[in-house]
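The instructor's notes for this session suggest beginning with a concrete chain rather than abstract definitions. Hand out the sequence below and ask the class to guess, before any prediction is shown, which regions might be ordered.
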Amino acid sequence: MIPSAHQDTFTRDNLPPPSQWPQFLFDLPELHYPDRMNCVTELLDRWIANGRGNHACVISPTESLSYAQFAERVNRIANVLTRDLGLVPGNRVMLRAPNNPMMAACYLAVMKAGGVVIGTMPLLRAKELSYVVTKAKVTIALCDHKLADEMEKTRAITSDLKHVVYWGGTGDDTLEKRMAKPGYGQFTACDTANDDVCLIGFTSGTTGEPKGTMHFHRDIIATCDSYGRHVLRAQDTDRFIGSPPLAFTFGLGGLVLFPLRAGAATILVERASPDDLLKAISEHKATICFTAPTAYRAMLGKLGDYDISSLRKCISAGEALPRGTFDAWLEATGIKIMDGIGATEMLHIFIGSPEDEIRPGATGRAVPGYQAMVIDDAGKEMPPGIPGRLAVRGPTGCRYLADTRQTVYVQSGWNVTGDTYLMDKDRYFFYQARSDDMIISAGYNIAGPEVESALMTHPAVAECGVVGQPCPERGQIVKAYIVLRPGHAPDADTARLLQDHVKATVAPYKYPRAIEFVTELPKTQTGKLQRFELRKRAATEVAH
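After discussion, reveal the predicted structure:
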């Protein structure tokens, strides 16, 4: 490892031993970085040095900032952190806010100062926040005043948190008041090593306690120079927009890292429902949109109310993209949704194809700089056409913060993501299910998400989740939990209609033998379906 700039050595001390790391690949020349490197210099300061300070950088409903203005804001926050709050390189800083310019500036300020940033979802409660504070030994928090209640509750139940500073409110101790001090407009980036930790992303905790995933300065730039450069192919005239929170690495990449690496602009909106997103796309002439499949589907029925002709690229991740949603969006807009799979452990998308290489129904091929394969339970590569576990390696990879689950995710140098995939002879990868979402019924392997995709092509279905339900005769049966669209009755006739629809869409043995109509589905803070909650619910019921 390169000599660290971190005076606080907590993150290096709590990295897994190198023998448990995945193998890292730096095959592309653009992935060869200097030993000393601060990612914010690459994302922001270089544009100022190149004379592009007046170019639009961050746009929101309340303000618009050029690169020069945004860089000054970042510098002022970095000075507050180091001069006022005593941050030394390596300290962890928690951020709490919806997507807005201050939240983005705080991310970059922490990293520029040599700190380690930990973004948190706005809807997290004190119990969840205190787990993060304790696990990562967080000493400083910067928080939007609108989220002060849970922050103060967190402060009361953990001794690690020494400083909490709010912005957006009133009083003499706000972040804005501190930022306004004379001499705070300039800040020299900390001379960090390219393998100094600068970000800890906590997983959403869908399978137990959240895991802290540690990422280096070089990782931040590597995801831009692999997926961003070779698949997304953004231009400096682009305007990015999307719904995922910045605390979700899908959102951080799509709404901060990729636009800044390209010298483009980002549009940050605190509210990003389908209506809000369409309105902002229309008003601010967004060209690239990052959101989840459910949002694209929800926006379809509202497209006639907004002018979204500025859009030229749409990216989907977080959940598998149903073929029906892809086809309907293409028909309505002329745009092929770029599907992708990423992971908090990998920082961002590692399988996905540019528009001219999309194969409908496939997630895509391995992003340049990455390798991917399908393996069996023993770790042996499977031939094309046979489902198995997805394994991947590249310039980014899993390094958990003091977590014994490291050896579950990393096996023989590969990151094993927990997804079941099938690869065709052209090395396109087709999503089957999360590995624990496979349903074995009367000897048949049935992927729950495939049944969900079939159900979602019926106009009566708004949302659905499919899991296995215990059955004495068949081992398991396919059970669907369905939220209906208005105007459809949750009765036996509708259930039979949907069962027949699935039989006509996929192999008949995959149809849901049990259907339960519900008003809502359990989801994570990032909007992902919590199938494990449905599995727990189904496990209490035995099919007859």
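Then share the key points. The mean pLDDT is 94. Residues 253 and 348 are 7 Å apart (CA to CA).
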